[in-house]
Write a structure and sequence with these properties.
The structure holds 2 protein chains of 2 kinds.
Chain A lengths: L36 H4 L17 H14 L20 H7 L2 H4 L11 H18 L3 E3 L5 H18 L6 E5 L5 H9 L2 E5 L9 H7 L4 E7 L11 H10 L3 E5 L12 H4 L3 E5 H4 L12 E5 L11 E5 L2 E5 L16 H37 L4 E2 L9 E4 L1 H5 L4 H10 L6 E2 L8 E4 L7 H20 L1 H6 L11 H6 L16
Parallel strand pairs in A: 2-3, 2-4, 4-5, 5-6
Antiparallel strand pairs in A: 1-7, 6-7, 8-9, 10-11, 11-13, 12-13
Helix pairs in contact in A: 3-12, 5-12, 6-7, 12-15
Chain B lengths: L7 E2 L4 E6 L2 E6 L1 H7 L2 E5 L6 E2 L4 E7 L3 E5 L4 E6 L2 H4 L3 H4 L8 E5 L2 H5 L4 H11 L1
Antiparallel strand pairs in B: 1-2, 2-3, 3-9, 4-6, 5-8, 6-7, 8-9
Classes of the chains: A alpha/beta, B alpha+beta.
Chain lengths: 497, 128
C-alpha cells in the first residue's frame, strides 16, 4: 500500500516503454537511390550520434498518450475553477479553423504578398479588439500577459524619456498579480504599493498619497483579484493624468467585462488582453499564449516593430518605426491563437460576447451565494466573474486551504487558486467561468460543502487527501527543493538538465 | 505555541537572541507554521548594512514568498550557511538550527524597543 509521499506509478514514461527496433509504420524500400544526410545538410546540422529517441510501436505510443490524458485533469474532463486564470471550455470549432491548411501551413518568412488572408485575420482581430478595449493602437506580438506588461512599462519609460521627464515610480495595489511589481523592477522603476480598503477595493486616500511627480504609471487590475469592480477607476484616472502619469489596465480579469464595459472610456491609457484566457485558446500546459497590448493614440509610435497597417491594397507590416521600444517576440506573435480569437469573436458576435461576460458574472455570484455560509467570503456583496473565500473557519478545525484544495481533487474537480491574493488569509479564489451549467456548479458547491462537513467530523480525512487520484499527496517542498525537470538516462551516466 | 522567554520579537514574527554587541536573527515557530515548508532562504552577504524594519532578505515557501525584516539596524556579520542545503531547518528548529543571520547592532536602543515574549504572545493571541 502506498503512503502519502510515495505516489503509485500508473503510467511509465515513454522512454521506459522503449524497445529497440520497435517503430511505427515500416515504409517500402526506396525505389530511387538513397542519399545520406551528409549529402543533403551542411556539416554543422549533423549530430555526432543519434539522439536516443524512444522506440515504440504506433499503438504503444497512442495508448501511452491517451492514458496520460486520462490521468491528468483538464477542462475537457471537468470543472476547472482556477481563479484569475479563466480556465474555460474553448469551443472545438475555433481549433478546427486554426488547423485549416491555409493557416496552419504558412511560414512567417513567406513574402507578405503571399499571405494576404492571414494578414486580414490579424487586421480583423485588431478591429474587434480596438472596439472592445476602446483604444486605437494595438499589437498582437507579445505572447503572454506578463510580456504585455513589460512592453507597456517600457512604452511608459520611452514616453516620459521623450518628453525629457524623469520619473522613478510605478504604483501597484497590494492585491495585484506578482507580475506587476516584477515588471516594474525589470524596467528599472521602483514599486510603490498601495493597500486595499475594507471593502476590497483600492484605498483611494492611499492612491492619492502615492501619486507624485515621480509617478510614471499606475497598474490596476479591474475587476481586481478579489473579483470586485474598482468603481473609482474614473477618479484614479483623473488623478494619474493630472500628475502626467499613465494608467495601465492589467487585463487578467477581462472575462468579466468584454462587451459590457470599455477600458478606454474608464480612463485607461493602455491595457493588455490574455487571448489564452478569454478568447478561446486552451492554456494551463505552459503555452503557447497570446498577448495583446492596446494603447491610446499618442502611445502608438512606441509599439513593438512591426505594426500592421492598412493601405489601399490591403494590410502590410510597417517596419519603419523609429520610436518603437523594439521587438518583444519573434515574427508576429503566436498566429494560431490570433486565428482562434477571431473565430471565437465571429461565432459569438457582439451580443454573444457580452452575454458571455454576464453569464460568467452570474455563475460566480451563484456559487458565492451557495458557499458563503460555510466558507467566509473575503468581502460581502456581489462579485464579478470570480470571488475569494477564506478557509479560516476550517483552519481553526485543523484543515487549511491547501487541504480543501487537495480534497476537491477527490471529487473530480480541479482545485481553485489557493493562497492568492496574498491579502486574504487561507485564500481560495474561485472562478467558475460562463461555460459551466447549473448542474456542474451545483456539483462543485456540494463538494465544497461536503469538505466543510468533513472538516468538522473527520478533519484527518481532508488532511490525507487526495485519496482517489492516480497519485496521492505529493511532497511539494521536496519537488521545489530538488528540481529535476527532465528525464535522465542514469544507466548511461546521462545527466539531463 | 513555543515562544522562548529569553528572546525578543518583532511584529513581523522575527526573533533576536542577544550576545554582547551582536544579535542572532530568525523567524518564530508561528511564522514557520504559517509559511509551511520552506524551500529557499535568500540572505545578504556578510558585510551588508541593514536598517531596522527594512527587508534584508526573503524566504520562499511552497505557497508564498515573504520578506524578512531586520529587527535592528547594523551590519551582517554571519549567515547560516547550512540553510543553503537544508532550508527545512527553519521549519524543524526555528529558534536554534534555523537561525538566519547575525547582525552587529548599531544602536542598542533598537533591540530594547522590540517585543518581549509576553507581548509577542499577546500579539499572536490577537492574530489567531
Amino acid at each position: 500500500m502506498s503512503t502519502v509521499n510515495e505516489p503509485t506509478v500508473v503510467e511509465p514514461t515513454i522512454r521506459e516503454l522503449s524497445v529497440p527496433g520497435h517503430r511505427g509504420p515500416r515504409l517500402q524500400p526506396l525505389d530511387i537511390p538513397a542519399r545520406g544526410a551528409e549529402a543533403l545538410l551542411p556539416g554543422v546540422a549533423i549530430r555526432d550520434r543519434a539522439p536516443g529517441l524512444p522506440e515504440v510501436s504506433e499503438p504503444a505510443a497512442v495508448r501511452h498518450f491517451v492514458n496520460l490524458s486520462t490521468l491528468n485533469h483538464h477542462i475537457d474532463k471537468a470543472l476547472y475553477p482556477l481563479g484569475s486564470c479563466t480556465m474555460k471550455y474553448n469551443p472545438k470549432l475555433n481549433d478546427e479553423i486554426a488547423r485549416l491548411p491555409g493557416f496552419a501551413g504558412i511560414h512567417p518568412l513567406q513574402p507578405e504578398e503571399s499571405v494576404p488572408g492571414a494578414l486580414s485575420v490579424i487586421g480583423d482581430l485588431h478591429e474587434w479588439l480596438r472596439t472592445i478595449m476602446g483604444m486605437p493602437g494595438i499589437t498582437t506580438q507579445p505572447v503572454a500577459g506578463a510580456q504585455c506588461e513589460l512592453t507597456a512599462i517600457l512604452i511608459a519609460r520611452a514616453y516620459h524619456a521623450e518628453r525629457g521627464d524623469v520619473r522613478e515610480e510605478v504604483i501597484v495595489p497590494d492585491s495585484a498579480h506578482g507580475t506587476n511589481p516584477s515588471t516594474v523592477s525589470q524596467v528599472g522603476y521602483k514599486v510603490v504599493t498601495v493597500k486595499s480598503g475594507a471593502d476590497g477595493r483600492i484605498d483611494l486616500e492611499a492612491v492619492r498619497r502615492a501619486i507624485s511627480p515621480r509617478t510614471a504609471a499606475m497598474m490596476l487590475t479591474n475587476p481586481n483579484t478579489l473579483g470586485i469592480f474598482e468603481k473609482e477607476v474614473g477618479t484614479i484616472a483623473q488623478w494619474i493624468h493630472e500628475a502626467g502619469a499613465l494608467l495601465y489596465l492589467d487585463g487578467a480579469n477581462l472575462n468579466a467585462m468584454v462587451g459590457l464595459a470599455n477600458p478606454g472610456a474608464m480612463g485607461f491609457d493602455f491595457a493588455h488582453i490574455n487571448l489564452h484566457k478569454t478568447f478561446s485558446t486552451p492554456h494551463g500546459g505552459g503555452g503557447p499564449g497570446g498577448g495583446v497590448l492596446c494603447v491610446r493614440a499618442d502611445l502608438e509610435p512606441y509599439l513593438p516593430t512591426p505594426v500592421l497597417v492598412r493601405s489601399e491594397s490591403g494590410y502590410r507590416w510597417d517596419f519603419d518605426r523609429p520610436r518603437s521600444v523594439g521587438r518583444v517576440h519573434s515574427y508576429y506573435g503566436n498566429f494560431g491563437i490570433l486565428v482562434r480569437a477571431l473565430a471565437y469573436l465571429r461565432s459569438l458576435g457582439a451580443s454573444g460576447v457580452a452575454e458571455v461576460s454576464r453569464e460568467a458574472i452570474l455563475n460566480a455570484n451563484y456559487l458565492k451565494a451557495r458557499l458563503q455560509d460555510a466558507y467566509q467570503p473575503s468581502h460581502e456583496g456581489p462579485c464579478m466573474h470570480e470571488f475569494v473565500l477564506s478557509a479560516v473557519r476550517q483552519k481553526a478545525r485543523g484543515v487549511k486551504a491547501l487541504d480543501v484544495a487537495k480534497r476537491l481533487l477527490d471529487f473530480g474537480v480541479h482545485a481553485p487558486t489557493t493562497y492568492f491574493p496574498l491579502i486574504v488569509d487561507e485564500a481560495l479564489m474561485i472562478e467558475p467561468t460562463e461555460t459551466e451549467s447549473k448542474a456542474s456548479l451545483d456539483a462543485f458547491a456540494e463538494a465544497m460543502l461536503a469538505i466543510d462537513r468533513e472538516s468538522i467530523e473527520d478533519p484527518e480525512s481532508v488532511r490525507r487527501a487526495p485519496t482517489r487520484t492516480p497519485v496521492r499527496r505529493l511532497d511539494e517542498a521536496r519537488a521545489a527543493r530538488q528540481l529535476v525537470l527532465t528525464w535522465q538516462d542514469l544507466e548511461a551516466g546521462g545527466s539531463g538538465v | 505555541m513555543n515562544v522562548p522567554k529569553d528572546l525578543r520579537y518583532t511584529k513581523e514574527h522575527e526573533w533576536i537572541r542577544t550576545h554582547g554587541g551582536e544579535v542572532e536573527v530568525g523567524i518564530t515557530e508561528y511564522a514557520q507554521g504559517e509559511l509551511g515548508d520552506v524551500i529557499f532562504v535568500d540572505l545578504p552577504a556578510p558585510g551588508t548594512k541593514v536598517e531596522q524594519m527594512k527587508a534584508f532578505g526573503s524566504i520562499d515557501a511552497v505557497k508564498t514568498v515573504s520578506d524578512l525584516f531586520a529587527p535592528v539596524s547594523g551590519e551582517i556579520t554571519a549567515v547560516n550557511e547550512s540553510l543553503k542545503d537544508n532550508p527545512a531547518l527553519v521549519n524543524q528548529s526555528p529558534y536554534e538550527q534555523g537561525w538566519m543571520v547575525k547582525i552587529r547592532v548599531a544602536k542598542d536602543a533598537d533591540a530594547e524597543g522590540l517585543l518581549s515574549a509576553d507581548a509577542y504572545e499577546k500579539l499572536l493571541g490577537a492574530t489567531a
